[in-house]
Amino acid sequence: MRPPSPSLDSAIADLEQSSSSEGLIVATRRLAALQHPGAAESLMQVLAFNNPGAALAAVDGLVAIGPDAVPTILNNLDGRNYGARAWAVRALAGLADERGLEVLVDALLHDVGPSVRRAAARGLGDLVLNPEPDRAANQLNLCIRSLEEGSEDGEWVVRYAVVVGLERRHGPVPEQAASSLRRIPAVLQRLAEPEAEEIAVVRQRSWLALQRLPIPSQP
Q1: Same domain for 72 and 101?
Q2: Largest distance between two CA atoms of the chain
Q3: Which of 27, 63, 142, 146 could disulfide-link 94, Cβ–Cβ 3.0 to 4.6 Å?
Q4: Domain of 15, in residue numbers
Q5: What confidence tens digit (pLDDT) does each residue in 28-81 have?
Q6: Cα(59)–Cα(56) distance, rounded to whole angstroms?
Q7: How far apart are CA 177 and CA 169, in angstroms?
């Protein structure tokens, strides 16, 4: 991890001394722009404030930091502050790091906020799997099973995100994980049928995803 710098210390001090909503947003953006791992703790604190503009800037900053931000996010998830946890889920979705898998699964299947479930579906679709084939297979299976369950979500925006996530998951994978991919076309086919999906835009996106899936090679 990079050592603190005068600019980092100054940006954190400005954030802590912010006395207005607009000032907090400006200070958060300045801190986020540094993309310094040492800013992650302070950016996480911003998520707990009732300031959507600052929280959005903090999420962008955490994602910009990259993998170094993941432990700080996971260690500071606040189950007592729904707003902060919701923003943290968005950050984990943007980072697409395997260490956030369990949080994303829980958010997709259990969070009360449709926008959070939508973000979790996106994160599961983009999640970078472990390079070890057996672990990657287990992770992929969990991603697909969770997205499959999410395909029955009561909110169409979540189902739409699930379609996108399933399409993104259907790509080159280790041989051990290939069997998990076979469930994807059936889910997309169901969501493309008016008998199962009443929202036209979800059906259309499902058809598009089906058309983009690679054609299986003939034996």
Answers
A1: no
A2: 68
A3: 63
A4: 8-81
A5: 999 999 999 999 999 999 999 989 999 999 999 999 999 999 999 999 998 889
A6: 5
A7: 11
